[in-house]
Amino acid sequence: MPRKWERGMLLGELKSRVGDFFSRLRGELGERELENILWDFQISLMEADVALEIAEDIVDDLRESFMKNKSRDVVKERFKEKLEEILNKAKPERGLLELISEGDKPYVILFLGVNGTGKTTTIAKVAHYLSREGLDVVIAAGDTFRAGAIEQIEEHARRLGVKLVKHDVGADSAAVAYDAIKHAEARGKDIVLIDTAGRMQTNRNLMDELRKIARVSKPDMKVFVGDALSGNDVVDQATTFDREIGVDSIILAKMDAAKGGCAISLAYVLEKPILFLGTGQKYEDLMEFDPQLLIDLIIGD
User: Fold this and answer.
1) CATH number, domain 12-90
2) Regarding the domain delimited by 96-290, which CATH topology (the fold level of the hierarchy) does it fall under?
3) What are phi and psi of 253, to 5 degrees?
4) Which of 48, 124, 216, 267 has its CA 20 to 30 A from that of 253?
5) pTM, whole model, 2 decimals?
Protein backbone atom coordinates (compact mmCIF):
# COMPACT_ATOMS: atom_id res chain seq x y z
CA MET A 1 0.00 0.00 0.00
CA PRO A 2 1.17 3.59 -0.52
CA ARG A 3 2.91 5.09 2.46
CA LYS A 4 0.92 7.13 4.92
CA TRP A 5 2.00 10.59 5.95
CA GLU A 6 3.68 10.98 9.25
CA ARG A 7 1.85 13.58 11.33
CA GLY A 8 3.49 16.95 10.88
CA MET A 9 5.51 15.79 7.89
CA LEU A 10 3.79 18.17 5.47
CA LEU A 11 1.83 21.40 5.33
CA GLY A 12 3.90 23.01 8.06
CA GLU A 13 3.45 26.53 6.68
CA LEU A 14 -0.34 26.29 6.38
CA LYS A 15 -0.59 24.68 9.81
CA SER A 16 1.49 27.52 11.29
CA ARG A 17 -0.73 30.19 9.74
CA VAL A 18 -3.89 28.48 11.00
CA GLY A 19 -2.41 28.19 14.48
CA ASP A 20 -1.51 31.88 14.50
CA PHE A 21 -5.05 32.81 13.52
CA PHE A 22 -6.67 30.88 16.33
CA SER A 23 -4.15 32.16 18.88
CA ARG A 24 -5.34 35.73 18.10
CA LEU A 25 -9.06 35.02 18.55
CA ARG A 26 -10.45 36.23 21.89
CA GLY A 27 -14.01 36.69 23.06
CA GLU A 28 -13.62 40.43 23.77
CA LEU A 29 -12.44 41.40 20.28
CA GLY A 30 -13.95 44.54 18.82
CA GLU A 31 -15.31 44.60 15.27
CA ARG A 32 -12.33 46.40 13.75
CA GLU A 33 -9.78 44.17 15.47
CA LEU A 34 -11.72 41.06 14.39
CA GLU A 35 -11.81 42.28 10.79
CA ASN A 36 -8.05 42.84 10.84
CA ILE A 37 -7.46 39.32 12.14
CA LEU A 38 -9.83 37.81 9.56
CA TRP A 39 -8.21 39.80 6.76
CA ASP A 40 -4.77 38.60 7.82
CA PHE A 41 -6.07 35.03 7.85
CA GLN A 42 -7.58 35.39 4.39
CA ILE A 43 -4.24 36.63 3.07
CA SER A 44 -2.51 33.72 4.82
CA LEU A 45 -4.83 31.22 3.15
CA MET A 46 -4.23 32.80 -0.24
CA GLU A 47 -0.46 32.78 0.31
CA ALA A 48 -0.81 29.07 1.07
CA ASP A 49 -2.39 28.58 -2.40
CA VAL A 50 -6.05 28.63 -1.37
CA ALA A 51 -7.90 30.42 -4.18
CA LEU A 52 -9.43 33.82 -3.46
CA GLU A 53 -13.09 32.76 -3.69
CA ILE A 54 -12.50 29.81 -1.35
CA ALA A 55 -10.53 31.91 1.15
CA GLU A 56 -13.34 34.48 1.17
CA ASP A 57 -15.96 31.77 1.65
CA ILE A 58 -14.05 30.27 4.60
CA VAL A 59 -13.47 33.63 6.26
CA ASP A 60 -17.13 34.63 5.85
CA ASP A 61 -18.15 31.43 7.60
CA LEU A 62 -15.70 31.98 10.44
CA ARG A 63 -16.79 35.60 10.89
CA GLU A 64 -20.42 34.54 11.23
CA SER A 65 -19.51 31.79 13.68
CA PHE A 66 -17.45 34.10 15.88
CA MET A 67 -20.06 36.85 15.93
CA LYS A 68 -22.69 34.36 17.11
CA ASN A 69 -20.60 32.60 19.75
CA LYS A 70 -17.49 34.69 20.62
CA SER A 71 -15.77 31.34 21.16
CA ARG A 72 -12.42 30.31 19.72
CA ASP A 73 -13.29 26.61 20.14
CA VAL A 74 -16.58 27.00 18.29
CA VAL A 75 -14.86 28.82 15.42
CA LYS A 76 -12.17 26.16 15.28
CA GLU A 77 -14.80 23.45 15.06
CA ARG A 78 -16.56 25.37 12.29
CA PHE A 79 -13.28 25.68 10.40
CA LYS A 80 -12.82 21.92 10.67
CA GLU A 81 -16.36 21.36 9.41
CA LYS A 82 -15.75 23.73 6.51
CA LEU A 83 -12.60 21.87 5.48
CA GLU A 84 -14.50 18.59 5.68
CA GLU A 85 -17.26 19.98 3.46
CA ILE A 86 -14.71 21.04 0.86
CA LEU A 87 -12.22 18.18 0.92
CA ASN A 88 -14.83 15.43 1.08
CA LYS A 89 -15.92 16.55 -2.39
CA ALA A 90 -12.61 15.09 -3.59
CA LYS A 91 -12.78 11.87 -1.57
CA PRO A 92 -12.94 8.89 -3.94
CA GLU A 93 -16.03 6.74 -3.49
CA ARG A 94 -13.92 3.69 -4.37
CA GLY A 95 -10.19 3.13 -4.46
CA LEU A 96 -8.24 2.44 -7.63
CA LEU A 97 -7.84 -1.26 -6.87
CA GLU A 98 -11.58 -1.66 -6.42
CA LEU A 99 -12.27 0.14 -9.70
CA ILE A 100 -9.79 -2.07 -11.53
CA SER A 101 -11.27 -5.26 -10.06
CA GLU A 102 -14.76 -4.21 -11.20
CA GLY A 103 -13.71 -3.30 -14.76
CA ASP A 104 -12.84 -5.34 -17.81
CA LYS A 105 -9.24 -6.37 -18.50
CA PRO A 106 -7.15 -4.55 -19.36
CA TYR A 107 -8.18 -1.51 -17.34
CA VAL A 108 -6.86 1.52 -19.25
CA ILE A 109 -5.74 4.75 -17.59
CA LEU A 110 -4.79 7.80 -19.65
CA PHE A 111 -2.59 10.34 -17.87
CA LEU A 112 -2.95 14.04 -18.71
CA GLY A 113 -1.11 17.16 -17.62
CA VAL A 114 1.05 20.12 -18.53
CA ASN A 115 4.83 20.11 -18.93
CA GLY A 116 6.97 19.51 -15.88
CA THR A 117 4.32 18.28 -13.46
CA GLY A 118 6.05 14.99 -12.67
CA LYS A 119 3.58 13.00 -14.76
CA THR A 120 6.03 10.35 -15.95
CA THR A 121 7.40 9.79 -12.44
CA THR A 122 3.83 9.59 -11.15
CA ILE A 123 3.02 6.90 -13.71
CA ALA A 124 6.03 4.94 -12.47
CA LYS A 125 4.78 5.29 -8.88
CA VAL A 126 1.33 4.05 -9.87
CA ALA A 127 2.90 1.13 -11.75
CA HIS A 128 4.93 0.26 -8.65
CA TYR A 129 1.82 0.44 -6.46
CA LEU A 130 -0.20 -1.78 -8.77
CA SER A 131 2.63 -4.27 -9.29
CA ARG A 132 3.03 -4.68 -5.53
CA GLU A 133 -0.67 -5.51 -5.39
CA GLY A 134 -0.06 -8.40 -7.81
CA LEU A 135 -1.37 -6.77 -10.99
CA ASP A 136 0.31 -7.16 -14.38
CA VAL A 137 1.04 -3.67 -15.70
CA VAL A 138 1.81 -2.44 -19.21
CA ILE A 139 3.08 1.10 -19.77
CA ALA A 140 2.55 2.87 -23.09
CA ALA A 141 5.34 5.35 -23.89
CA GLY A 142 2.91 7.81 -25.46
CA ASP A 143 5.11 10.87 -25.01
CA THR A 144 6.78 10.70 -28.42
CA PHE A 145 7.15 14.47 -28.55
CA ARG A 146 9.62 15.37 -25.80
CA ALA A 147 13.30 14.56 -26.25
CA GLY A 148 14.36 11.82 -23.85
CA ALA A 149 10.80 11.01 -22.72
CA ILE A 150 10.84 7.46 -24.10
CA GLU A 151 14.19 6.75 -22.49
CA GLN A 152 12.92 8.12 -19.16
CA ILE A 153 9.82 5.94 -19.03
CA GLU A 154 11.81 2.99 -20.39
CA GLU A 155 14.24 3.25 -17.47
CA HIS A 156 11.37 3.34 -14.99
CA ALA A 157 9.83 0.25 -16.61
CA ARG A 158 13.16 -1.57 -16.48
CA ARG A 159 13.62 -0.81 -12.77
CA LEU A 160 10.06 -1.83 -11.98
CA GLY A 161 10.12 -4.95 -14.13
CA VAL A 162 6.99 -4.04 -16.10
CA LYS A 163 6.33 -4.24 -19.82
CA LEU A 164 6.82 -1.08 -21.88
CA VAL A 165 5.36 -0.60 -25.36
CA LYS A 166 7.13 2.11 -27.35
CA HIS A 167 7.59 3.50 -30.85
CA ASP A 168 10.22 5.87 -32.20
CA VAL A 169 10.39 9.56 -31.32
CA GLY A 170 7.88 11.48 -33.40
CA ALA A 171 5.57 8.49 -33.85
CA ASP A 172 1.80 8.69 -33.49
CA SER A 173 1.04 8.63 -29.78
CA ALA A 174 -2.40 7.15 -30.40
CA ALA A 175 -0.77 4.22 -32.22
CA VAL A 176 1.47 3.58 -29.21
CA ALA A 177 -1.56 3.51 -26.92
CA TYR A 178 -3.42 1.19 -29.32
CA ASP A 179 -0.49 -1.25 -29.53
CA ALA A 180 -0.08 -1.30 -25.74
CA ILE A 181 -3.75 -2.13 -25.25
CA LYS A 182 -3.64 -4.88 -27.90
CA HIS A 183 -0.52 -6.30 -26.26
CA ALA A 184 -2.26 -6.34 -22.88
CA GLU A 185 -5.37 -7.98 -24.34
CA ALA A 186 -3.37 -10.69 -26.06
CA ARG A 187 -1.39 -11.57 -22.95
CA GLY A 188 -4.09 -11.18 -20.32
CA LYS A 189 -2.50 -8.19 -18.61
CA ASP A 190 -4.50 -6.34 -15.98
CA ILE A 191 -3.86 -2.68 -16.66
CA VAL A 192 -2.41 -0.26 -19.20
CA LEU A 193 -0.96 3.10 -18.11
CA ILE A 194 -0.66 5.55 -21.00
CA ASP A 195 1.89 8.33 -20.76
CA THR A 196 1.32 11.41 -22.91
CA ALA A 197 3.34 14.47 -23.82
CA GLY A 198 2.93 17.29 -21.34
CA ARG A 199 1.19 20.22 -22.94
CA MET A 200 0.03 23.65 -21.95
CA GLN A 201 -3.74 23.75 -21.85
CA THR A 202 -3.67 26.58 -24.42
CA ASN A 203 -1.87 24.53 -27.10
CA ARG A 204 -4.68 23.63 -29.50
CA ASN A 205 -2.70 21.19 -31.67
CA LEU A 206 -1.49 19.15 -28.74
CA MET A 207 -4.95 19.15 -27.16
CA ASP A 208 -6.37 17.85 -30.44
CA GLU A 209 -3.76 15.09 -30.38
CA LEU A 210 -4.79 14.21 -26.85
CA ARG A 211 -8.42 13.95 -27.92
CA LYS A 212 -7.31 11.52 -30.63
CA ILE A 213 -5.45 9.37 -28.09
CA ALA A 214 -8.57 9.30 -25.92
CA ARG A 215 -10.75 8.29 -28.90
CA VAL A 216 -8.41 5.47 -29.86
CA SER A 217 -7.66 4.13 -26.39
CA LYS A 218 -11.16 4.55 -24.92
CA PRO A 219 -9.69 4.77 -21.39
CA ASP A 220 -11.58 3.59 -18.35
CA MET A 221 -10.13 6.55 -16.47
CA LYS A 222 -8.51 9.85 -17.42
CA VAL A 223 -6.22 11.10 -14.68
CA PHE A 224 -4.99 14.68 -14.49
CA VAL A 225 -1.57 14.92 -12.84
CA GLY A 226 -1.08 18.33 -11.27
CA ASP A 227 1.99 19.95 -9.76
CA ALA A 228 1.12 21.08 -6.21
CA LEU A 229 3.98 23.59 -6.39
CA SER A 230 2.21 25.50 -9.16
CA GLY A 231 -0.39 26.80 -6.71
CA ASN A 232 -3.71 27.89 -8.14
CA ASP A 233 -2.46 27.51 -11.71
CA VAL A 234 -3.16 23.81 -11.23
CA VAL A 235 -6.88 24.60 -10.78
CA ASP A 236 -7.00 26.49 -14.09
CA GLN A 237 -5.09 23.69 -15.81
CA ALA A 238 -7.33 20.94 -14.45
CA THR A 239 -10.46 22.91 -15.32
CA THR A 240 -9.32 23.33 -18.93
CA PHE A 241 -8.31 19.67 -19.32
CA ASP A 242 -11.68 18.65 -17.89
CA ARG A 243 -13.53 20.86 -20.35
CA GLU A 244 -11.44 19.84 -23.37
CA ILE A 245 -10.73 16.15 -22.72
CA GLY A 246 -12.60 15.15 -19.57
CA VAL A 247 -10.99 14.40 -16.23
CA ASP A 248 -12.17 11.52 -14.05
CA SER A 249 -9.71 11.87 -11.19
CA ILE A 250 -6.61 13.73 -10.03
CA ILE A 251 -3.17 12.97 -8.68
CA LEU A 252 -1.33 15.85 -7.02
CA ALA A 253 2.44 15.49 -7.34
CA LYS A 254 5.13 17.17 -5.18
CA MET A 255 2.88 17.66 -2.16
CA ASP A 256 5.87 17.10 0.11
CA ALA A 257 7.24 20.52 -0.87
CA ALA A 258 3.95 22.37 -1.43
CA LYS A 259 2.00 24.76 0.78
CA GLY A 260 -1.04 22.53 0.40
CA GLY A 261 -3.84 24.96 -0.32
CA CYS A 262 -4.16 23.85 -3.94
CA ALA A 263 -5.74 20.58 -2.75
CA ILE A 264 -8.46 22.63 -1.05
CA SER A 265 -8.95 24.73 -4.18
CA LEU A 266 -9.13 21.70 -6.49
CA ALA A 267 -11.67 19.98 -4.28
CA TYR A 268 -13.79 23.13 -4.06
CA VAL A 269 -13.77 23.98 -7.78
CA LEU A 270 -13.64 20.65 -9.62
CA GLU A 271 -15.31 18.25 -7.17
CA LYS A 272 -13.31 15.43 -8.79
CA PRO A 273 -11.82 12.56 -6.77
CA ILE A 274 -8.18 12.96 -5.80
CA LEU A 275 -6.70 9.47 -5.97
CA PHE A 276 -3.18 10.02 -4.68
CA LEU A 277 -0.74 12.61 -3.42
CA GLY A 278 2.91 12.40 -4.40
CA THR A 279 5.07 12.85 -1.31
CA GLY A 280 8.64 12.33 -2.49
CA GLN A 281 10.93 11.00 -5.21
CA LYS A 282 10.84 7.29 -4.38
CA TYR A 283 8.45 4.88 -6.05
CA GLU A 284 6.69 4.22 -2.75
CA ASP A 285 6.16 7.96 -2.11
CA LEU A 286 2.52 7.87 -3.16
CA MET A 287 -0.22 8.37 -0.61
CA GLU A 288 -3.91 7.62 -0.99
CA PHE A 289 -5.87 10.85 -0.56
CA ASP A 290 -7.35 11.04 2.94
CA PRO A 291 -9.34 14.24 3.67
CA GLN A 292 -9.38 13.62 7.41
CA LEU A 293 -5.63 13.22 7.65
CA LEU A 294 -5.15 16.40 5.65
CA ILE A 295 -7.51 18.26 8.00
CA ASP A 296 -5.68 16.93 11.05
CA LEU A 297 -2.39 18.13 9.61
CA ILE A 298 -3.77 21.59 8.87
CA ILE A 299 -5.53 22.15 12.19
CA GLY A 300 -2.90 20.39 14.26
CA ASP A 301 -5.17 18.47 16.64
Assistant:
1) 1.20.120.140
2) Rossmann fold (3.40.50)
3) -90, 160
4) 216
5) 0.91
